[in-house]
Structures are given as C-alpha cells and as structure tokens.
Specification:
mainly alpha
Length: 68
C-alpha cells in the first residue's frame, strides 16, 4: 500500500515539474543560449548528488527529497 502512495506522490511531483523545466529551457533558448540536453551534461552540471546506496527505503527517498 505504501509503495502505491509514494509512487503516486512522486508522479505528481514530476508531472508538476516537467512544464516548469520545459519553460525554463525555452527561456534559455530565447536568450540565445543553448540549453543542456544530454545526460552527460546534466550530470556534469548537477548540484544534487545521487544517493548510490544499493537499496533505499521509502523514508530515505522522502528525506533526500526534502533535503534537496
């Protein structure tokens, strides 16, 4: 049951964030700057660090989200 609740929560988050990210990328391009578009470049410029533990608990994922 908890998996479904968290899955729905994270889905809601990324569905809200996607149009915001798209708008920012469009604004960057309208200013004549090429926005980053490859995974390599995203990782190179990211300020958030991936939690590389083999298995994350649901609570750890929530804590990471709040911390970030």
């Amino acid at each position: 049951r908890q998996f479904h609740d968290f899955h729905a929560f994270f889905k809601e988050q990324y569905e809200q964030l996607f149009p915001i990210i798209d708008d920012v990328a469009e604004r960057i391009r309208s200013l004549g700057i090429k926005s980053i578009s490859t995974l390599h470049d995203f990782l190179k410029h990211a300020t958030l660090k991936e939690d590389t533990k083999y298995e994350l608990t649901d609570l750890t994922m929530i804590k990471n989200l709040l911390h970030d």
